[in-house]
Write a structure and sequence with these properties.
With 153 residues, the protein is α+β, with helices and mostly antiparallel strands. 22% of the residues lie in helices and 39% in strands. The protein has one domain.
């Protein structure tokens, strides 16, 4: 069974979260951002944090934030929930037993890892990443999943 996917995005300013998440109906989820270090870009310079501290944001606000500004991603830990938030998600097993539907992790500005319970959505995300020309797009399975924590840190 496929757990998720991983790929590489360019290490530059852009709207990569918008691109990565374009197959997902953002407004149908509540988004939990944890320990994020990514910035809004203004006039070609890093301005302020994209998300202020660890927050929970509704889908409409989340979508607006991703489309209004160019950003620079360094570390991102975002999890999507349709219903109530689960307790802390540390491992893949925690993810499976939680109400979390989707986890997006960005490390070192370009390494993207996505975990997704919905196999149809996962296939759409894979095709989308390939369409955008992101590099090394690969499905994650139990055989090649070396991540021990579902965290960008």
């Amino acid at each position: 069974m496929r757990r998720g996917l991983r790929f590489t995005i360019p290490n530059q300013y852009g709207q990569f979260l918008k691109a990565i998440l374009s197959p997902i109906p953002l407004d149908q989820y509540r988004w939990k951002v944890i320990d994020e270090e990514s910035y809004i870009v203004k006039d070609g310079h890093l301005n302020r944090l994209l998300f202020s501290d660890s927050i929970v944001i509704d889908g409409r606000q989340f979508a607006e934030l991703l489309t209004q500004h160019e950003h620079y991603l360094i570390f991102v830990d975002i999890k999507a929930f349709q219903s109530h938030m689960s307790s802390e998600i540390v491992t893949y097993e925690d993810f499976l037993h939680s109400t979390c539907e989707f986890a997006l992790l960005v490390t070192d500005s370009q390494d993207v890892t996505i975990y997704c319970k919905d196999q149809e959505m996962l296939n759409s995300l894979y095709q989308n990443a390939s369409w955008y020309g992101f590099e090394d797009v690969t499905y994650i399975t139990r055989h090649n999943d070396s991540r021990t924590r579902l965290s960008c840190w």
